[in-house]
Design brief:
Its EC number is 2.6.1.16. The chain has 14 helices and 10 strands. It has about 375 residues and is an alpha/beta fold. The chain has a 5-stranded parallel sheet, with helices on both faces. It binds fructose -6-phosphate. Fructose -6-phosphate (F6R) binds next to helix 4 and helix 12.
């Protein structure tokens, strides 16, 4: 049932190109417009929405953080992302013009369920992004967009995360289309980019052996830091979360711009720091800033593990280890940049003798608050 892999997690990492392709399947018609049949919130209601609030936990929360960039960029609607466990306890401002998006692989996470119940009590519409047919969260929502990742068995979420991202991009584009902020050529261009992303994920998977080798050499380390900016920041958080839960190592993700406000004090000789580098083509200002960050931490002794787009030569002099990912549009980069971090955490966990599919103290779905 593990399909020849030692662990479900390895199998599920390998299934990501298919999961991504399946989640896109049938949702875009020949003319490049989106057809989201499972979204049963009438377009008229979506046109009246004045705010989007995303609630989720753990890895799904990281997908939500990335969705915020896409939603605000493509729809110009303000979008907040909040940990579901914090949401209802702070008396959030919600009304009938708020669209709440609840993201959950299992559809049973109690914190997320309680957050969406609270939102519905305030009259907000709730759209669930979920991987489990007929689970509680979609049943209690106004609409659902299913991710088609297939069953995810390993406790650590991998393929569900990538498909959550795809679903979030689809929702963002759909909102843009319905509300008239993004349509026609622009949507078609993003759709085209999305359609080639499964191939890009596959390409990354084919180049992971050096990442595994590197991970094995770091098995006795105490701490690994992760840095990113823009959509690379949630990717850094996700890389750190994977390492904590699987390798039981101290790992932290930072927004690279925050380094100078404190975290740079942590840098010491031979500390592994993974840096997710934004494309030099898109927001080149961010790219250049992150290159200076890499320079700064390396000058202080960090061992830099740099994840950068093919053709990005500026990072080469400062990378102790360079992991190449295919060039993608900025907003879509998390779909390829996350993969090496999953492989890294999985291999480190194995090297430390940990149970990869069933990490200590964790359960696949957390049905208590
Ligand atoms: C991390 C992980 C957890 C879940 C979180 C939410 O690898 O698996 O952080 O992402 O517990 O679970 P769902 O998506 O089922 O609501």
């Amino acid at each position: 049932e593990k399909g020849g892999y030692d662990y479900f997690m390895l199998k599920e990492i390998a299934e990501q190109p298919k999961a991504v392709a399946d989640t896109l399947l049938g949702r875009i018609d020949g003319s490049g417009s989106l057809t989201l049949d499972e979204v049963r919130i009438p377009p008229g209601v979506l046109r009246e929405i004045d705010k989007v609030v995303i609630v989720a936990c753990g890895t799904a929360f990281h997908a939500g953080m990335i969705a915020k960039y896409a939603i605000e960029h493509w729809t110009r609607l303000p979008c907040e992302v909040e940990l579901a466990s914090e949401f209802r306890y702070r008396d959030p401002i919600l009304d009938a013009q708020t669209l709440v998006i609840a993201i959950s692989q299992s559809g049973e996470t109690m914190d997320t369920l309680m957050a969406l119940r609270h939102a519905r009590e305030q009259g907000s519409k709730v759209l669930a992004i979920c991987n489990t047919n007929g689970s509680t969260i979609p049943r209690e929502s106004d609409a659902v967009l299913y991710t088609h990742a297939g069953p995810e068995v390993a406790v650590a979420s991998t393929k569900a995360f990538l498909t959550q991202l795809v679903a979030c991009y689809l929702v963002a584009l759909y909102l843009g289309q319905v509300r008239g902020t993004k349509w026609g050529d622009e949507i078609r261009a993003v759709i085209r980019d999305l359609s080639s992303i499964a191939g890009a994920v596959d390409q990354v998977l084919g180049t992971m052996e050096p990442v595994r080798e590197l991970a094995r050499t770091l098995a006795s380390k105490k701490t690994v830091l992760f840095l990113g900016r823009h959509v690379g920041y949630p990717v850094a958080l996700e890389g750190a979360l994977k390492l904590k839960e699987l390798a039981y190592m101290h790992a932290e993700g930072f927004a690279a711009g925050e380094l100078k406000h404190g975290p740079i004090a942590l840098i010491e000789e031979d500390l592994p720091v993974v840096v997710v580098v934004p494309s030099p083509r898109g927001r080149s200002v961010l790219h250049d800033k992150i290159v200076s960050n890499i320079q700064e931490i390396r000058a202080r002794g960090a061992r830099t593990i740099v994840i950068a787009e093919e053709g990005d030569e500026a990072v080469v002099p400062y990378a102790d280890h360079l992991v190449r990912i295919p060039a993608t549009p900025t907003l879509l980069q998390p779909l390829v940049a996350t993969v090496p971090l999953q492989v890294f955490a999985c291999e480190l966990a194995t090297a430390r003798g940990n149970e990869v599919d069933q990490p200590r103290n964790l359960a696949k779905s957390v049905t208590v608050e």
